[in-house]
Predict the structure.
Amino acid sequence: MPFRAKMRIPASLCMRCRGAKRLCGLSYCPIEIELITRSKVGIQGSVREIEGSSPPSVFVGRYGYPKVSVYPSAPPIKGDTSSLAVSAAWIDMPLEEFISQRLSMLRGSTEFSVNAAVDPDKLLQRIQEISLSKGSVDVDILLEKPIDTSRIEIDDHVTPMGPASPMKSFTLDSTKTDQHIEKVYYDTDLKARDAVLALYKDKIDVERISQSLSVGIMGEGRRRKIVPTRWSITAVDTMISDDLVEDIKDMPSIDKFLAYRMRVNGNYFMAILTPSNWIYEWGESWFPGSTWNMWGDEAEVEIDYEGYYGRKTYPDIGGCYYSSRVAVGEAFKRMGRSGGAITWREIYPGFNIPVGVWFVRENMRRLFSQNPEEFDTIDEAIKYVSEWMKVPPDKWKSNSYVYRTLRYNNLERFFSI
């Protein structure tokens, strides 16, 4: 399964580095990814059958909607593969190990109408059983034509995925179901939003909740649908963060500016929680040579935001907006306090492969697990996080809705004294 970086790396550099020094400037080693993936997949050509343990994992594509492709997936190994589908486990993996694990997930595909979840046929029921499983489940997928293991898929919303081919048949062993997911599956009077929040409060991983929504096993019976994975992830992050934000609005505000910062895998995450009513923004700055600024000449800054009553339109910046918002809501709820939030991320040239919005959600969660620095003013807090910035602080501030709003409110209070 050849993996190619988006740049040509001289062999002499690789021989000097041997995966240890990152001399190419990437935040991962493409050679290590290829070697690890080959060892997991055990093949370099093509296969006609996938025998392995699904973590569990099912992917739903969005092209062709309202008729979509559904992909049960598994690596060609048997045993406990659950770490391949739990975002909390990915955060501690080296980036190349995470990517190689995900690329080893081979997929069979079949098509369904999105409304098929209302009255699922036997094949869809078997696929849904994967998502109901408490742990890894053995599957056997016969393919209509050989799977080309050189073809992989990457996406900025979902995790990297291995290659796929149309299914001829699909079987799975009996499995123990997750009692929490099973409960919402059989409750055909429970709305999808209520099911999502129930699973979240039962400590089910967000990726599992998204997958359950995606394969159509939650919601009111006659309204159940198969949902493309890309959409289900954002829907779940939105529903969870909406609920968290409404909860914290009734709590007393923090009384200091709390600043957080963390560098990881060619990224710099920073956050400032503000003593104010709810106000929120997520900003990204992609440097030349990073995933979404591959051919630019300078770092670009993009920010989306909301005021106290939220927003009515989908943010241009994408699903990371809501993934970060989940982590912010959780941080305030743990404190029993309310406030506003500036959340920014700088992405540097070595980070040039999309890995999914889980990367933002889990890293922001980790960021907020740290002890913050406290400040009396927003400018002091920004000065602190700017010590590690590569983008000029004034460029961030000039684009920041929260910064402008809080500075304006402070000036109003000053002149009204």
Residues 45-172 form one domain. Residues 269 and 345 are 5 Å apart (CA to CA). The chain has three domains: 45-172, 179-233, 257-415.
